[in-house]
Amino acid sequence: MIGAARTRSLVDSLALFALALAVPLVILTVVAAACYVQSERSRLTAIGQLTGDHLRERVDRELAEMTATARTLATSPAIDAGDDAAFAAQARAVVDVSHVTVTLSELDGRHRVNTRAEPGRAMPTVPRPAIVAAVTASRQPVVSGLMISGITGRRIIGVHAPVIRDGIVTKLVSVVVRVEHFETLIEQEGIAQPYSATILDAGGGIIAATYAPVIAAANGVFASEAQAGEADAGEVSGETERTRDATYAHRSQRSGWTVVTDVETAALEAPFRRSLALLAAIGCLLAALGGLVALPLMRRTKAALRALAAAAEAVGQERPVRLEPSRLREVDVVGQALAAASRALAEQRATLDAAQADLEARVEQGGRALEASRAQSRVLADNVSDVITMRRQGSYDLSYVSPSCARMFGQDDDAIAGFAIADKIHPEDVAAVAAVDAALGSGQSSVTCLFRALHADGRWIWVESVSSRIASAGPDEPDVVSVLRDVTERQGHADELRMARDMAELAQAKAENANRAKSEFLAVMSHEIRTPLSTIRGFSELLADTAPLSAEQSRYIALVDDAAATMVTAVEDIIDFARMEAGDLRLDPQPFGLASAIEDVAVFLRPVAARRGVAVGATITPDLPLHVLGDERRLRQILLNLLNALLRSHRGGLVTISVQRRHGVKDRIGFTIASSGGRAVATDAVGLGLTIAQRLIGLMGGRLDQVAGGGEPSTYRFTVPLPEAEAPEVRPEGAGLVFGRPARLLLVEDHPINREVACKLLERAGHVVDTANDGADAVAAVQQHGYDLVLMDIQMPRMDGLTATRRIRALQHPSRRVPILAMTASVLPDQVKGFHEAGMNGYIAKPLDRKGLCAAVEAQLASSLVLETRRGGGEAPTIFDRAAYDGLIASLGAEAAQSALRGFIVLVEAAHDADPSIPGSARTDADTIAVAARRLGFLDLASSHDRLAAAEPGPAEEAALKRARVARELARRVFDELAFNDRGAARPQVALL
Fold first, then answer.
1. Total Cβ atoms within 10 A of residue 611
2. Residues 6+ apart with CB under 8 A from 748
3. Nearest residue to 425 via CA among 405, 396, 402
4. Which end of the chain has fewer CB atoms surrounding its CB within 10 Å, N or C?
5. What's the rounded Cα separation, in Å, for the pair 126 and 819?
């Protein structure tokens, strides 16, 4: 029992609980009432604002009609003719004179026409200098403020329009209505309590209002001012007998008038008062009902609780408990529990007495078992090979050492009692042992350490210790237990393993060096062989194109070509083998004709086979597809290598290439290269060709099988997947793409013979060729002339091709975008990767031949030059018209022209980056781009997008889109210089294009 704790009766607790339940209900009710009040206030406010807006619009329409009438009458020909009667008749025809008055007056106020005046009566003179001044200054109709009529003396407003003749304001035409007209407008809007409305003129004068005292006050002001002359404002104080809470002003932009609407405070507060009264009534009713219900219940509860308190006291005194049933179920449950508890306490006392006797017997038995366990622990400590020690953390004074310490360290049994482990640790390992305590102090539960210790015979042994903290140790008890083990033999094995690993790493390094040396040798060999072969093949082609040769001369040239082709094949096999070793050999699947490819291989090898007395044939089954999807070049290489392997080991007879579809397996084509007849010839080596063919077949998804027997040469079989494909696009003979102008090329080559060969081949293809001896000359040349393509040798003195390419790409000059092709004999995978990293667009492998060189050059130019399809000549389109852009600068200014150009660049890039899968996405902005491009001077870009916009979906649209992208690439050379350089610097650079 806690005497200091404050207690509370259950009745009080129930009352507090009821109060706690009531508080959220009260809060919820108050919040709902507040939301209702706010909603009512918002509704009244919104109605007041909307009423003011509608009234202002009505007033604006009335004034607009009066203004239009005044404007119309001001242009009446009767004014010019001086026919006042005709003007008056026209005015009466236009307006309802019973409500509206029309006057024609001179600027000094003399009325010439007044539809309100009685016939024959003299026209009044009402000077209004302020209005005359306003009309003369603005030369537009002016809406007046509140005025007093010069004839009737009543309050009026008017719209005054100038009569302008020869640019001079000569008279005024006024359309006037009484203010009662606007009071009628307010009445028509149905504005009633609790709302009110007031119309004020530009000077604050009250024109009309729903509140009678306001109107009376305004009438009084104007009546008093009418005696003194013109009533100009008629302002009335906003103080009235009624209090207003929300006022809203709606100002007219046409007349400067203000429509004011407000809501009475009483109307806004009415919802609050009703909610407050409703809440008070509900609260009183709930309190009365709660009191009537709770009073009898609390009396019964109090009596039951007294009985429970008496029962609990009896349980504490171990007396039997008996309670009479009550009308409260919970009280009965607690009373029954107390009765059961009193019975259970009696039973537990008897049980505790029996348990105490049993516990005393078990303690005696446990003491005997503990003594036996201690004896076993001593036996284990005496016989285990590991040493167990106990000490305090931070101290090396051992409080316990197991007897096995004598065997491990070679000590006498008598020396164990004073064994000092700190004196045995190797000096170099003292820091490692000291780190154990630091690690245990940082929270680690177990720490392993390896150190050397001095044996009694003078040698060093390796000891592994595992130290753990004793969490239950007292302040003066050892808190670190360590297990020491002799691992000298294991360390010896680890040293041997480390030496073996070092030897393996050394062998791996030697292998890598050997592989690197092999790669360097292949690169040098490829370069040194390809360079002279380039000269041989180039001059052979040039010689073949000279004057008619004799049959013997043609035969000699053919032999030279065959020998060069053999050398090129050998070098290509070596390079392919290097690519396979590097994992860089990839396939390029394209649609091609299978039968024609097989026949081309057979035709190519027949002259070589004929010199060995071997005939080459091809057998193609008719069920093969006409066109398949695969890498035609690699398939040709496989067949040539396998045929060459057979030809090397065969003399005479027939070698046949058989091709057939593999039935039961989709899209797989089988190839068989077999020999028959003739005789086998021993060869020294198989060569790389067979190995390369085998790996290429594996890369295609097949396997090469070789069958040999009876002394005959081998038969090769393999199957690869070649799915059927559509026929590739074939360019009609004589209708190809030709350049709109000769392409200007820069040839960078340090070898004079190779430079001459390449130059002649390119010039015979119709190109204009400039030459440079090294990379430094190339960097200077591209800044002096606009080249369409640069052919760059790699290995050159003074500056190599890679360095020259990087410097060209870093230039702040249009030439930095010029396409660059490497022209090199170094075509190993790592070397080709370096070309692309330096910024080159591709490469041409030496030795050069006319067909390969021209194909590579034209393929690169196709993406950067405008190509025109024509049959008989024509001129290339103009890419950029400088005069058009200069004209745009002259009309808009340099800054605005550059801003327009930047926006045009963003439009072009966004249009060409659109999702190609969306039909018609390419043509969406074509018309817009064409118009903008023509205005900025990009004529070629404009014409290409005109064609794109007019193209039909399908092949025509694809061709037009491809042409538009070529034009965009050309325009990009000009974009940067125009949009981001200053005009003076850009002019000579753009001129190069």
1. 9
2. 771, 772, 773, 774, 775, 777, 778, 790, 791, 792, 793, 796, 801, 804
3. 396
4. N
5. 89
d(CA 843, CA 836): 9
DSSP string of 302-337?
Answer: HHHHHHHHHHHHHHHTT--------S-HHHHHHHHH
SS3 707: strand
Q: Say if CB 933 and CB 946 are below 8 A apart.
A: no
CA dihedral 880, 881, 884, 889 (to 10 degrees): 60
Tokens 């004598």 correspond to what residue?
A: 406
Nearest C-alpha neighbor of 157 from the set 223, 202, 92, 215: 202
Q: What is the pLDDT of residue 5?
A: 46
Mind listing the pLDDT tens digit for each residue in 471-524? 788 777 888 888 888 888 888 787 778 887 888 787 777 766 766 666 666 666
Structure tokens at 553: 């001369």
Instruction: State the Cα–Cα distance between residues 532 and 754, nearest whole angstrom.
Output: 8
How many Cβ atoms are within 10 Å of 165's Cβ, its own excluded?
Answer: 11
Task: Report the alpha-carbon distance of residue 173 to residue 95 in Å, rounded.
Answer: 13
Q: Note the pLDDT of residue 520.
A: 60
Question: What predicted TM-score, i.e. pTM, was given to this entire model?
Answer: 0.36
How much is the pLDDT for 531?
Answer: 64
513-517-522 Cα angle (round to 5): 150
As to burial, measured by CB atoms within 10 angstroms (0-12 exposed, 13-18 middle, 19+ buried), residue 786 is: middle
Task: Provide the pairing of β-strand 654-661 with 615-620.
Answer: parallel
Asked if 49 contacts 259 with a C-beta cutoff of 8 angstroms, the reply is no
Q: Write the pLDDT tens digit of every residue in 871-923.
A: 334 455 677 777 888 888 887 788 878 888 888 888 888 777 766 666 666 66
Torsion of CA 442, 443, 448, 452, to 10 degrees: 30
Structure tokens that stand for 411 in this block: 């000590």
| Bridge partners, 591 (sequence order) | 629
- List strands edge to edge, sheet with 244-251: 206-209, 195-200, 258-264, 244-251
Tell me the C-alpha distance between 961 and 956, whole Å. 9
Average pLDDT on 195-205 reads 83
Q: DSSP assignment of 344-377, as one string?
A: HHHHHHHHHHHHHHHHHHHHHHHHHHHHHHHHHH
What is the C-alpha R_g of the chain?
56
Q: Please report where in the chains the tokens 């009628």 appear, as a residue.
A: 184
Residue 713 tokens read as 């040469």
Residue 805 CA to residue 793 CA, distance in Å, equals 10
Q: What's the rounded mean pLDDT across residues 585-605?
A: 85
CA 227 to chain centre: 80
- How many other CB atoms are found less than 10 A from the CB of residue 937? 24
Work out the average pLDDT over 235-239: 36
Cα-based angle 913, 915, 921 (whole degrees, multiple of 5):
90
Half-sphere exposure of 309 (CA within 13 A, CB side): 8
pLDDT, tens digit, for every residue of 139-149? 889 888 888 88
- Quick one: residue 893, left, alpha or beta (phi over 0 = left, psi -120 to 50 = alpha)? left
Cis peptide before 194 (omega within 30 of 0): yes
Q: Which of 493, 490, 466 is nearest to 386 (CA)?
A: 466
* DSSP 8-state code for residue 77: H
Q: Residue 443: which pLDDT band, with cuts at 50, 70 and 90?
A: confident
Q: What are phi and psi of 114, to 5 degrees?
A: -145, 110
What's the helix, strand, coil split of the chain in %, to 5? 55, 20, 30
